[in-house]
Amino acid sequence: MSVERPLRSSRVNATFLKASSMKTFNRAARKGDQPQCASARSERASMLSPMAYTLVSVLLLAPVTMACAGNVVAQADASASFDHEMLRHRGIDPKLAEYLRDAPRFSPGARVVELVVNGVSAGKIDAHFDQEGSLCFDENLIKKARLRVPSSSFLVQHNDGKNSCYDFVAAFPQTSLTLRPNREQIYLVVSQDAMRGDALEAQNFTEGGIAALANYDIMTMRSKFGDTRRDSTYATTQVGFNIDDWIVRSRQLFSKDGDQQRFNHLYAYAQRTFPDQRTVVQGGQININSPVFAGAPITGFQFMPESALSNTATSGALVQGIAQSQATVEVRQAGVLIYSTMVPEGQFALTDIPLLNTSTDLDVTVQESGGQSRSFLVPAATFRNAMVSQPGYSFAVGKVRELSSDRREVPVIAAATSTWKLNDRAVLSVGTLGASSYQTIGSGVDASLHRDVSASLRGAGSNASRERVKGAQIIASANARATERLSVGVSAKQQTSGYRDLADTLVNQDSPWRASLYKGQYTASVNWSHETLGSFNAAYSKSQNFEGNADNRLIGSWGKTMKYATVTANVETNMGSASKRDSGRSYSNDNAVYLNVSIPLGSRNVRTYVSKRGSTIRTGAAMSDVVNDQLNYRVSVERNSLMNQTYASGNFSVVPRYASADFGYSQGGSGSTQSGRISGGIVAHKNGITLSPYAVQDTFGLVTVGDLSGVKLTTPNGPVWTDAAGQAVVPQLNAYRTNRVEVQPKSLPRRVDLRNGFQSLQAGRGSVNHLHFDVIKARRVMVDAVDGQGKALPKGSSVLDSQNNFLTTVLDKGTIFLTDANPDQTLKVSLPGDKACTLDIHYPKENNDDIFYESAPAVCH
Fold this sequence. Notes:
The chain is mainly beta and about 850 residues long.
């Protein structure tokens, strides 16, 4: 192995030399040199380098070229010779020169060095070197580098006789290994077949683990209007446990409004993924998952394909928007939370959304770190890639759950669906669902006609025997990206008057909700962007019922980011019939216009806005500031023209490491409102109880960073901090995908280091993962060493351990810098004249983790 020159052999060669050392070599060898030896001398000098960068400023090795004949040039692997007297004259221990004679190398034993694989740092590791400076490819190094472990035939005994190592270069001949002692670095370049990679392997994901958890979200509000006061409290909790990859959860809701209290149990279920079969099994209060039919809530049993293990194309649903700060994005379909993630400030685009079906729109909520939230709809017609269905079989049976008071007698139903992959661009789904008084059968095709064009076609027929009606439904959609700046989407849904979904048959016939049955629904959308003009978006939808009434809705938006501000404008218009009801939702014919100007000022953001809906005009201004990861706030003032009143509000959000809290206050006219919210999670595990500032999901982890508290870690779900026991919860890990957990070095005490600053893993769904970051409390000591007569030790003398391994050298005025001092270790100094003495260091009694190094006197006897 060589410095800066990758070799695939075990021979150690020297390469480059720092310029200052080159000058020393040339001066030392200038006297008595012959002109014809200059090239040989120059080449030989260029093959030498110091063992570490810090030694360069101390050691000026002076090689003396041997006699050469004619134009014979020394080979690259020739050893350099040194004039010991000249080295002594320059204050350099000749023993150090002998150690570095052949090549720059690491000192023997275990060392903490940086590992770089294919140009990407893999953090610090414990690397083992033998007496010759050769690297040991042990399992720890191979694991940290995310390399494949060679077969046992490549297992060899290391030269130190203690460690078992692999001949990795022989196993993967394309491997290039470069040792860089001057940078405390190992540089590896390997082929892709030597990497474990991010693709799922049957043995590569974690599994198992036991832990119990509780998530909570509690909000309280107090409102005053004149002499009237109203208090309300809402609390949502989720409790459960993970054991042997089984996920058990139960969610409850408690509400108190004035003197009225209510407790609702929402659902309870158990779930497990069987990776070999790529199947998920669920039991309890669940939702039917089908690519053909809309999901129905049942109490029963279900098995279905595990979407995270599928190699087919992703769902194709694209959720995009702009976050004014670090925000949480929640995506719901049919009222079910199907996706949640955190996004940084700015524009975001989310893919890989695990859809329940292809016919239901997505409700998206963006929760800003300042507490403000907004919601928008993603129509099913905008799903750009139609490859939604996962190949495989699914089956569900159970009793329909009652979710509202106006439902009829709930039936027992069964559903079965099969999906086949026709080719790389299309899948076919066929399914049936039946109950005692309702049956339906349907099929669908999802296809990617081109890289930028997708289409979907679905058809279904139903028989509602209780109503004695039969009908059919067809849904078609297509999406295309015409250019890099222009994309369009269209969809159409048509059904006969006798067609019924399962949900339609469960509602009383005199329910107002039945009046919302539509004969046809049509949508069209277009998105266009221009560097100068900005981005334009328009979406049109039309819904027509069987009575001939129609609702037409047009939404348009424009946005432009300029040098100092971002300007957005939105227009919404409703055309057609009068207000209608759809499951309790009211739609108004009032048109709306909204104009917003946002100006970023460092971490702050100032915005002004004006909006008009109907006859009401609102104008306002707001300022938000993200102070740090744990604190942000927002203040605003608004004027309402209709009420002729001014409203002011303020709220701030804080994450005190182990919970998330929001507080707000608003006042206007004769009323005021105070609110508070706290949320988070609690995990009970084998090492104790650990709190999380975020809700804990179905796959999670627990991190230990020694016994250090307050250490910040970056996780897929946002930053977390270790508690007093040095533990933290990773609240969410993406199942069967690569997850990265990283320690933020600035949060560590100054004298503390890590063997590896980050870890990555592929977590199996339902697993409880334990990650350990080994802490290195390096005791750095600046020693002022004198001899028995009180004189400073000679500069350049070598400092050795009890095994005569070189550690460092004596600097000016007898100063010795120990990077990892051990009071129990015996150190000695090699003095001129082949003499030696033993250091007696008087270490401070108390350690301070927050200082970079300590100072200590020493006497060398």
